[in-house]
């Protein structure tokens, strides 16, 4: 009988990539966990043979039930939270604490799953420790609270921490994408860092996290207990990324560094959050994705078939 892989957020970006990779491998039964099993995205997965179950990230018991239904308990679980969904809602006062609560609920439910052998937790490096307390990025903080919770529990022995790099698809976000400056005829990208700021990207987040997840599950002798894996395709400077975009889109591009205050004025709230992340990477540079614990890379796991930044950019229609 195939082992059961349960995927949180199966209809989302990361979760969807894991489901897709598992379907391609044919090595797992797949249970997708989502809030709405009646959505079009959920029905599309059901049509491919994925068992879809509903759960609420704020309700630990619903996750316990999703992870170990009576007929078949989860052998492995891929867990991911979504800071941005709550960040976008104005009346949620503390998206950090909400994300931490949801991640801890997932970890608690996983710990109660008797059949569990492997828990993959999608997270990020400790920016506060790396920067000596100088930088704190909100969409990192909640995940780090979950990291610490797991490290203090028996679940650590079954856990792999998967650091997922910057999404190449972020190029279409309003505060990232180059915009036409009509008076110059060029597409201008404005960011609050110098153009040599390095960005480590996972490439296509709709594909590559799943490739890493399957590699992690197939090599527990490398990825357990409590090991860290960096999911990335490449590290490039801001200017290099813009040059790739210009090549793919066939549009003239220019870059300008602005203050984080001006960046946030252009894209309120979002500019400050994205800007803080970029400024951390600019200062930490090669230390941005490091830890006191060893970090495994694509070379250690012999990962192949990754889709890089250039291919992602080429997949968008830049004609307009």
UniProtKB/TrEMBL annotation:
Keywords linked to the UniProt accession: NADP
Domain NmrA-like: 1-287
Keyword ATP-binding included in the entry's annotation: no
GO cellular component: nucleus
Keyword NADP set for record: yes
Family: Belongs to the NmrA-type oxidoreductase family.
Protein name: NmrA-like domain-containing protein
Classification of source organism: Eukaryota, Fungi, Dikarya, Ascomycota, Pezizomycotina
């Amino acid at each position: 009988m195939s082992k059961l892989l349960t995927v949180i957020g199966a209809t989302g970006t990361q979760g969807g990539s894991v489901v897709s990779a598992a379907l391609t491998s044919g090595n797992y039964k797949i249970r997708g966990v989502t809030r709405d099993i009646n959505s079009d995205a959920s029905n599309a997965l059901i049509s491919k043979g994925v068992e879809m179950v509903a759960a609420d990230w704020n309700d630990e018991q619903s996750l316990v039930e999703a992870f170990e239904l009576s007929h078949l308990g989860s052998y492995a679980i891929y867990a991911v939270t979504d800071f941005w969904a709550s960040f976008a809602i104005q009346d949620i006062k503390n998206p950090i604490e909400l994300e931490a609560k949801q991640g801890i609920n997932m970890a608690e439910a996983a710990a109660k799953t008797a059949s569990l052998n492997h828990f993959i937790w999608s997270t990020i490096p400790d920016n506060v420790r790396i920067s000596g307390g100088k930088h704190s990025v909100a969409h990192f903080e909640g995940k780090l609270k979950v990291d610490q919770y797991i490290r203090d529990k028996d679940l650590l022995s079954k856990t792999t921490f998967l650091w997922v790099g910057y999404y190449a698809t972020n190029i279409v976000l309003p505060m990232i994408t180059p915009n036409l400056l009509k008076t110059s005829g060029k597409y201008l990208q404005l960011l609050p860092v110098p153009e040599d700021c390095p960005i480590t990207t996972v490439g296509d987040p709709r594909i590559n996290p799943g490739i890493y997840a399957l590699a992690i599950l197939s090599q527990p002798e490398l990825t357990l207990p409590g090991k860290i894996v960096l999911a990335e395709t490449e590290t490039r400077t801001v200017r290099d990324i813009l040059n790739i975009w210009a090549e793919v889109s066939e549009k003239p591009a220019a870059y300008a560094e602005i203050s984080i205050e001006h960046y946030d004025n252009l894209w309120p709230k979002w500019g400050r959050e994205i800007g803080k992340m970029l400024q951390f990477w600019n200062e930490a540079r090669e230390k941005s994705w490091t830890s006191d614990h060893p970090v495994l890379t694509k070379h250690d796991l012999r990962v192949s078939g990754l889709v890089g930044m250039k291919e992602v950019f080429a997949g968008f229609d830049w004609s307009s």
